[in-house]
Design brief:
The protein has 483 residues and is an alpha+beta fold. The protein contains 18 helices and 17 strands. 41% of the residues lie in helices and 15% in strands. α10 packs across α18 and α14 packs across α15.
Length: 483
């Protein structure tokens, strides 16, 4: 990455874009890194790529003449004879996330490749809203990535359908996972099989623009505030602030917020048997609650809320529309990097008279290995490195959650910045608001999650009443689960 005080460089690497008939092309990205998301290198051109990568060929910004000159040098190196890296085992890794996550991930990939020159890892990253379509398409087309970032909601669906490798046979040696307890592995296990290893611990959180509240002269929300109290704060900050128009984003279609609300009411999304654990009356109450939020001016109208594509960049807080948004605690790092204002975290508001156990300690993401990989041992070894290597941990920081490895957690603690420490303290102080980990989501849970977004929008736009929306959501969800 570009560092202050150093001359800005462009890294040059030839890559192959996915196409019916691939052809070599060149990609440049300022700041001494190159864009690898969504592109792959052909094995026929690996020698050229390696000559540039391992030779450390960089160029200053002197125009296309220098580019052509370097291309000639690299081509000559390729034609001069075989390159040892041609025999490298090529793996692919797919993940979702923001640009800062991509930068960290590629840096760790580079670290692993330097230590293991016989392995080449091609990274591919997309946003959350496109990720699951991309992964499903690749799995169905028998082109699954070797290493897959998974979510707790989808993990067991992919595992039960045979798309993921059981990682348990590799536990003793290749997947040793030093510093990781057996308890920490439970979130990725079902029926005695390990489908994924937890990358870190997180929980849902309110992301609060502290600057907007302070400049408006309104007190910040605090842990322990009720929904009614947060609503009044949202209305007040919207009225008094010069920089935001609404107080709190509309989360009527956001499944984690609905789940937190249900859990405080003694219910949940799913039972241990994989059936719905809520009914239409719960959904009606939820939709009516958010209709009141919109009508009061606390939450934005549906056309504004529809801008949110479930990424940090399009969250209503990052767009500058609201002072409060909802996300996962590990995303504080990303929010702080793209927002000039100070962002702080709070637990979700409390339902009056509730159990106060809406939160739970959730695996932020998990790393899985495709059942179809040609290189299971190499894929497992990379997962082990990614999760337990202390130097890799310092690069990854807590952007994917608080590391589950004791040795990594202790190694990075002294180096955490203010946001990293805030995330660590948030998780360490969550016990009063947290209950038990819910049962693994059943097959179809991902489809129901997407349906909740769609139906929530239809209700917000007035195309469905809360009662009609509740009936559609519940009946459709039951139909999906009965397949």
């Amino acid at each position: 990455m570009h560092q202050a005080g150093r001359e800005q460089l462009i890294t040059y690497r030839p890559v192959i874009k996915l196409a019916r008939f691939p052809s070599p092309c060149y990609r440049f990205e300022e700041g001494g890194r190159f864009g690898r998301g969504g592109v792959w290198r052909s094995s026929n051109w690996w020698g050229l790529c390696s000559a540039l990568k391992w030779g450390g060929i960089y160029m200053k910004r002197f125009g296309m003449g220098r580019i052509a000159a370097l291309a000639g040098v690299a081509a000559a190196a390729l034609l001069a004879g075989p390159v040892a890296a041609q025999d490298a085992k090529e793996l692919r890794m797919l993940w979702w996330g923001s640009q800062p996550r991509a930068d960290r991930t590629f840096e760790v990939i580079d670290m692993y490749q330097e230590a293991n020159p016989d392995v080449s890892i091609q990274g591919e990253t997309v946003g959350w809203s496109d990720y699951w379509t991309r992964l499903a398409t690749q799995v169905a087309g028998r082109n699954a990535p070797d290493v897959i970032q998974q979510d707790y909601r989808y993990l067991f669906e992919y595992g039960s359908r045979g798309a993921l490798a059981d990682m348990m046979p590799y536990r003793d040696e290749i997947l040793a996972l030093p510093g990781v307890s057996e308890e920490d592995l439970q979130s990725g296990m079902a029926d005695g099989k390990l489908w994924g290893v937890n990358l870190g611990v997180n929980s849902v959180a309110m992301m609060v623009n502290a600057t907007a509240f302070e400049e408006a002269g309104v007190r910040l929300p605090e842990n322990g505030d009720t929904w009614a109290e947060v609503k009044e704060l949202a209305i007040e900050v919207a009225e008094k602030s010069d920089q935001i128009d609404y107080g709190i984003e509309d989360s009527s279609g956001y499944e984690p917020a609905f789940q937190n609300w249900l859990r405080q009411r003694g219910k949940d999304l799913y039972t241990a048997e994989g059936q719905l654990a809520f009914d239409e009356s719960d959904v009606v109450a939820w939709y009516e609650f958010w209709a009141d939020m919109r009508d009061s001016g606390a939450a934005p109208p549906p056309d504004v809320q529809a801008l949110d594509q479930r990424s940090i960049e399009t969250n209503q807080v990052s767009l500058g529309n609201t002072a409060i948004g909802f996300a996962n605690s590990n995303q504080l790092v990303g929010f702080s990097q793209i927002n000039e204002d100070e962002i702080v975290m709070r637990v979700f508001p409390l339902v009056e008279g509730s159990t106060n156990e809406g939160h739970y300690f959730k695996p932020s993401q998990l790393l899985s290995v495709a059942a179809s990989t040609e290189f299971p041992e190499d894929s497992m070894a990379f997962v082990n490195f990614f999760i337990t290597d202390t130097e890799a941990g310092k690069v990854l920081d807590v952007e994917r959650g608080v590391p589950i490895s004791d040795q990594v957690r202790e190694a990075i603690r002294p180096e955490l910045d203010e946001d990293g420490l805030a995330q660590l303290e948030f998780i360490e102080g969550l016990d009063p608001y947290a209950g038990t980990l819910p049962p693994p989501p059943p097959q179809g849970a991902g489809e129901i999650d997407q349906m909740m977004i769609s139906v929530g929008q239809q209700v917000a736009f007035g195309q469905l009443t809360p009662e009609e929306g509740a009936e559609r959501l519940v009946s459709s969800a039951e139909s999906i689960l009965s397949r």
